[in-house]
Amino acid sequence: MRIERLELRRLRLPLVRFFETSFGRVTDREFLLVTMEDDGAVGVGECVADANPFYSAETTRTAWHIIAEFIAPLVIGRSFDHPREIFGALAPIRGHQMAKAAVEMAAWDLFARQQGLPLAAVLGGSREAIASGVSIGIQDSLDELVERVQIERAAGYRRIKIKIKPGWDVGAVERVREACGDVPLMVDANAAYRLEDGDHLARLDRYDLMMIEQPLDYDDLRDHATLQRRLTTPICLDESIHSVRAADEALALGACKIINIKPGRLGGHGPSIAVHDLAAHHGVPVWHGGMLESGIGRAHNIHLSTLPNFSLPGDVAASRRYYAPDLIDPEIDVRSDGTIPVPGGLGLGVHLVPDRVASATLETLELPTRP
Ligand code: OSB
Ligand code: MG
């Protein structure tokens, strides 16, 4: 595979429904698409950085800068035998995992198409459908929260995650348990608590939650390890697992019992497979997180979720929960049993609808830039 050209595109899409986490409410989503070309073959990746640096330090504009000025010169005109070489080729650039992932993942799609294979096969996955869960944001009232949980359960989703923050935590879980019984339930705090809140968080232990995701600070493994010893509920780490090494340290410290894998947070499919394998080696299950992706990122997530240690339902749900219409055709849909079939065909197995992409586009850049 020889990377001839990249196209960078910044887009914005309105969300079907607002999404609120401990770091705020969003009503639309800004993201980048990276298109990679080699001799007429094309691969696409999505950069999951947001317009703001609240979930991670990266933004759509830092990713644009890093891809255009630093990543493109390292890959354009170069040949790679396999896309797993790309992340290593980007090692001179410190951090900026989401920028790296967008390019790396486009290369996996391109490579799979050139090989005449579905992306899942190239990634090493085998299942033909994935188990799907949903992430439900903070609502305006507990009644609305219960209503959302009921709607998603009726749609078939295999587990429910609710976002929590101080003031919207134990009471919200109690209310959902009262109204919805023993649904498979977990919570995600997006780093909203401190170790001093340990006694308060331990009140969640009585609700039989599958896990509590990222209760403490985004880069804090030590306090998570301390907190895990005080909780019976398993801790799952999201934000903290920003590299294969961080995963290794978290497992060594006992900072978590479950890992959320997001290829954007780790630098692409290559490092995600490494974390998947490492967790499996420790007997730790993983599941696939979500970043409110458009159809391109969503399709990448589905293919990656076919690896064997993705043994818990993830946050990869149907397109229509997010965008109407999505950028791709056909959309990603969930079946009534809560599974999503892996798109067939070559590479991602989905295609962009050009006029939808055009109307969502804010700016584009071709690399190398034309004189
Ligand atoms: O913490 O998992 C998270 C969305 C944006 C940023 C961070 C997170 C999320 C979600 C939504 O929970 C997952 C999804 O439905 O895509
Ligand atoms: Mg999370």
Characterization of the model:
This protein is α/β, with parallel strands linked by helices and 371 residues long. It has helices spanning 60-75, 86-89, 97-115, 119-123, 142-154, 170-180, 198-202, 221-230, 244-253, 263-266, 269-281, 295-304, 354-360, and strands at 5-21, 24-38, 41-47, 129-131, 134-136, 160-163, 185-188, 212-213, 235-237, 258-261, 286-288, 328-329, 339-341, 351-352, 361-367. The strands form 4 sheets. The chain has a 7-stranded parallel β-sheet. Helix 1 packs across helix 3 (97-115), helix 5 (142-154) crosses helix 6 (170-180) and helix 9 packs parallel to helix 11 (269-281). The mean pLDDT is 98. 2-succinylbenzoate binds next to loops.
Keywords:
21% strand, 34% helix, 4-stranded antiparallel beta sheet, single chain, alpha/beta, 371 residues, binds 2-succinylbenzoate, binds magnesium ion, 7-stranded parallel beta sheet
